[in-house]
């Protein structure tokens, strides 16, 4: 589908060179904004209350600052929310307030690592037919081939078209909100939840005074406990607090369909301990 062509349930369609608003340009948001510049008329971000680091990332990505979310919402044909998982609902509420009374609301891509239920809540707030569920799997993309942007929702094909030829490989799962977020949550169980078992068993072994013996026993099995712990710390790093929120959302994803969610919640707690320095 080419932007500018009518989409069922979405009126008016995206123009050929839409104004895109990014909330907010962290590392991933800056990369998404940069990727959209080729197809967008302009890519903007809301400067109010943001840090110098955020402003610098936006500048390097050649994004255009506007004063605040109200101005961004007023000008945008498409808004992309990319924020910490726990903030996704508040960001959507801020946008909804800014859009009050606007007769032609923009499309809204929730590209956060949240549960399907969270996306459904955003859809109820902003209009399900105008919300696209997005899930980024991979690092901030500055070159093709490493990162996939999964999309679902009625307007997902139009959003995918905007990323054609960009460093992000956009793939459409279908018209149902929540599908992209469910995929992201399930994928995150093996990339972020499973590795935390090393931190949990090491902490328990420390508490019982058997850490050295455990290390030796694992080594006999060809397992390097220290290497696993170092890899976990290196990957999580300063993102541990954010991953805790993602694991909370993953737990909610599992619980909603009757799947045991305890290990996801345990992973969230491990990341919280890492973030506050207790591990």
From TrEMBL:
Cite the Phosphogluconate dehydrogenase NAD-binding putative C-terminal domain residue spans from the record. Answer: 205-273
Q: Putative oxidoreductase/dehydrogenase Rossmann-like domain: which residues? A: 16-103
Listed SUPFAM superfamilies: 6-phosphogluconate dehydrogenase C-terminal domain-like (SSF48179), NAD(P)-binding Rossmann-fold domains (SSF51735)
According to UniProt, the name of this protein is Rossmann-like domain-containing protein
| Organism placement in taxonomy | Bacteria, Bacillati, Actinomycetota, Actinomycetes, Pseudonocardiales
